[in-house]
Amino acid sequence: MIPYGKHHIDEDDIAAVVEVLRGDWLTTGPTVTDFENGVAKYIGVTNAVAVSSGTAALHAAMFALEIKPGDEVIVSPITFAASANCVVYMGATPVFADVEPDTLLIDPKSVAEKITNKTRAIIAVDYAGQTCDYKALKAICEEFNLKLVGDCCHALGAKDEHGQQAGSIADISVLSFHPVKHITTGEGGMALTNNHELAKKMRTFRNHGIDVDASTRSQKCTWVYEMQELGYNYRITDIQCALGISQLKKLDNFLQIRRQLAAKYRFLFLNHYEIKPLKIKKGVEHAFHLYTVKVPANKRKAAFEEMRSQGFGVNVHYIPVHYHPYYKKHFNTGAGLCPVAEAAYEELLTLPLHPGMTERQIDSSAKTLDTILKNCK
Ligand SMILES: *Cc1c(COP(=O)(O)O)cnc(C)c1O
């Protein structure tokens, strides 16, 4: 089975991890800082806080922005549940805004309609690997005094239509280093910001709410620390960050392969009567975390099953978050809340795309889907 996404690890990566294993610091050591500095430099932000997952980074972002019970945070429903769960962790209420039909990115018009006097923040998701309309979202944030979080887990290496790096645009941006993402640390995540105060809060949050970490205490020769806030153990290890540093060196190459393979799909589906790739906005540099197409809703299930049975690990990204039983039960969500997202969901299919694939495999994945749809009544 060719999976829809997969990590790409080589001997350099393995050697980098082994080197840390032979050293003095397995966690909270210099390799964590080096990885943070490397990603911060790549994206062009002043602060990067590495944590144990993308979900932990989202939670840290909500904590730093002081989201509390009673607050509302506007989120896209076409995303992984974690994008909304982080709001619930703070006791606040996620409010789902609809998406644009051709990109599945959060629709600023729908966002504006969902604002109430309880709204505190917006979480924009750079779905599939292209940036949201941050200009419009920032204008809304300014008008209503809201904070903007970018869930950029799909978009490492993407640029918006003004040449700005994904991850550098919102008040806080979040990355994941799960194995299906652009670069991996096994599990891992990062929160990025140009605001030192927010970064400081997130650093504390990942370490139980304690103000000095172990390596700082060791440098200062003191046992003293204070727990100022309730945090968690969301630390990432030096072992993981060694892998991250090694992977970061290959990111541009991974992106180039992803873009090349995506262009191949696009060429093969050009003017196809049933397979419709999502729109790529003019002037953006897409990072192609996912290659998602729309197929006729009445054929989607058969296409999914047939592709799987023929060795193509297709998937569906995503079941709208507000369809999940948890959200229905606790937030009274359900069908009708975001009609555009709901209609799109019926047609979505994610095709295999990752740096270990060849153009030939893309060709065969595209042609198999074409044949399946033709034979499907
Ligand atoms: C992967 C992902 C996350 C969560 O990241 P983890 O590292 O798995 O916790 C959050 N949001 C989106 C959009 C993602 O794709």
UniProtKB/TrEMBL annotation:
This protein's UniProt keywords: Pyridoxal phosphate
Give the superkingdom in one word.
Answer: Bacteria
Classification via InterPro entries:
DegT/StrS_aminotransferase, PseC, PyrdxlP-dep_Trfase, PyrdxlP-dep_Trfase_major, PyrdxlP-dep_Trfase_small
GO process terms (BP): polysaccharide biosynthetic process
> Where on the chain is N6-(pyridoxal phosphate)lysine found, per UniProt?
K181
**Active-site positions, per UniProt?**
K181
**GO terms assigned for molecular function:** pyridoxal phosphate binding; transaminase activity
Which family does the entry's similarity section mention?
Belongs to the DegT/DnrJ/EryC1 family.
| Protein name (database record) | UDP-4-amino-4,6-dideoxy-N-acetyl-beta-L-altrosamine transaminase
Q: Which organism is it from?
A: Desulfovibrio gilichinskyi
**Organism placement in taxonomy:** Bacteria, Pseudomonadati, Thermodesulfobacteriota, Desulfovibrionia, Desulfovibrionales
